[in-house]
Amino acid sequence: MNIGIVGLGLIGGSLGLDLRRQGYRVLGLSRRPETCRAAIARGVVDDADVNFTLMAKAKVIFICTPLSAILPTVEQLIPFLAADTVLTDVGSVKTPVVEAITPLWHNFVGGHPMAGKTESGLDAAQANLFLGQPYVITPLATTPVTAVESVEFLVKALGAKLYHCSPQAHDRAVAWISHLPVMVSAALISACMSESNPLVLSLAQHIASSGFRDTSRVGGGNPELGVMMARYNRQELLRTLKSYRQQLDFFIDCIEKEEWGVLEEKLMQTQQARPDFLDS
Amino acid sequence: MNIGIVGLGLIGGSLGLDLRRQGYRVLGLSRRPETCRAAIARGVVDDADVNFTLMAKAKVIFICTPLSAILPTVEQLIPFLAADTVLTDVGSVKTPVVEAITPLWHNFVGGHPMAGKTESGLDAAQANLFLGQPYVITPLATTPVTAVESVEFLVKALGAKLYHCSPQAHDRAVAWISHLPVMVSAALISACMSESNPLVLSLAQHIASSGFRDTSRVGGGNPELGVMMARYNRQELLRTLKSYRQQLDFFIDCIEKEEWGVLEEKLMQTQQARPDFLDS
Q: Residues 6 or more apart from A128 whose CB is under 8 A from it?
């Protein structure tokens, strides 16, 4: 069976490596001829082209472009597809993608592999990137069962942990655990930068250690990615940010009023709750 | 030369291991006889006792108790000391400690080794814990130079990076890079816990990965320690929390108004600023 991959970066490239090892013939598409050549040379794909015609032969196509390119890519792709071709994407926000593409292509299943690393691009692609990692798919009630089953089958073959939910539930969940932490962490760096006494700022910079390193990591990440999260998941992110601000005010209030018992109770709750988010 | 260590936990025990290797005779004090025996058996100290009389022989004494026990410990210790004995502590907040002890003991130098690990207690003590780590000392203008020099000499022998500043500058700097991150991170966990849809909460728990893990780490730590930071460094922590809240509001405002250029500019600043806090 032929599988198409549009966009040969970290995710597209890693999918290619795994799916070829499963015995599928993998066809790649990139805007850049040198990426096509590199993908063939690295064994990420069997064939690759800058031209959409290659995708006519694929039964299932993974759209692995950045979020903002998913819709225009699908619009360009559609004229080349057989009617039963299954499309799926790997975007990190699902509601706007699913709402835009479903009217254009019936056999579309929204997807989000929760795998990643700091590096991006084809050079960072690796086998088993998805192994043991969550992979959320967000079919609608109207999505054809055959399309859903095709995507599920491939996701399971990657060794990923498959989750199903609505696009809205997905976007709300990633707002909590992925997009909110970026803003919370970036605001921490911004706040530290605002220290007006240069001696204190310099001392803080020199004595910062693992606590600061970890809490500030995602806030010091790729700015474009941060903006994209906020743009595409604006409503859910704002909802979580406002809930976060209430919690922050609770902590400020406790400390202002010296309610140490209340603060300790709260910190006991957070200590107890954290492992529930990390034992997946 | 005899060096005293009062409180044989992670910090006291690790100091003992390093100072004995430097050739000092290390005398330990713990409230628990079994800790004294264990410290001798592990080679952390040359001798140890539950009785303060042992400290009469020490030239320099490190007070390595929890913050709240520093003042009562020094009060109990003073009747046993020779007038030229140098006292220093390892508490993570300096203003209240220095203000309370300086009137009681002239030869006192506040100190704070910025070394630690998740485990605590004597069993976690290790050689070279301070090697390459910041060690801040906070002498006052009135602190005898000989006392400051004694502590400096020992700190340098540990291989630590020595910093000097006022107790106030220290407390402001640690509020930014250590105490504020705890509250910011705990509020993140609290906010996630507040999700009212159980399906979304469960999905969030299952798909949370390294971004959430890192940002939530210090907020899921020891509750007693968190309360102690807030109690002893209340004023500086509140100051940083309020500045943080302003920054958070800036992010919320950008996203609400869809000012994506402004948000990207801000995230570029945080990306650029973060390494300045981590290259010490």
A: A18, A159
Last residue of a domain, one of A139, A165, A191: A165
Question: What stretches of A175-209 show up as alpha helix (H) in DSSP?
Answer: 180-193, 198-207
A253–chain B Cβ distance below 8 A for any pair: no
- A211 and B276 within 8 Å at the Cβ level: the answer is no
Report in angstroms the alpha-carbon separations of B93 from A168, A242, B66, B109, B234. Answer: 45, 32, 11, 13, 10
With b for 16 or more beta-carbon neighbours within 10 A and e for fewer, the B244-279 pattern comes to bbebbebbbebbeeeeeebbbebbeebbebbebbee
**B-chain residues near A276 (CB < 8 A):** 205
**What is chain B's mean pLDDT, rounded?**
96
Please give the backbone phi and psi of residue A60, each rounded to the nearest 5 degrees, phi first. -130, 135
Residue B25 class from Cβ within 10 Å (0-12 exposed, 13-18 middle, 19+ buried)? middle
Q: Does B228 touch chain A (CB under 8 A)?
A: no
Confirm or reject contact between B153 and chain A (CB < 8 A).
no
Residue B30 phi/psi, 5° resolution?
A: -140, 155
Round to whole Å and give the CA distance between B231 and B216: 21
Portion 88-127 of A in contact with B at CB < 8 A: 114
Q: Is A258 within 8 Å of chain B by CB?
A: yes
* A16 and A68 housed in the same domain: yes
* B183 band by pLDDT with thresholds 50, 70 and 90: very high
Residue A108, strand partner residues: A87
Residues B150, B180 share a domain: no
| B182 and B147 together in one domain | no
**Do A178 and A111 sit in the same domain of this protein?**
no
Mean of pLDDT values over A40-69:
96
Report how far residue B66's alpha carbon sits from residue B64's, in angstroms, rounded to the nearest whole number. 7
Cα–Cα distance between B6 and B65 in angstroms, integer? Answer: 7
* Contact (Cβ atoms closer than 8 angstroms) between residue B41 and residue B68: no
Q: What confidence score (pLDDT) does residue A8 get?
A: 97
Residue A208 lies in domain: 169-277
Is B160 near chain A, with CB under 8 Å?
no
Task: Write the pLDDT tens digit of every residue in B65-81.
Answer: 999 999 999 999 999 99
Determine the Cα–Cα distance for residues A208 and B273; give it in Å rounded to an integer: 13
Provide the number of structural domains found in chain A.
2
Contact A270 B134 (CB under 8 A): no
**CA dist., res. A230 & res. A148, Å (int):** 28
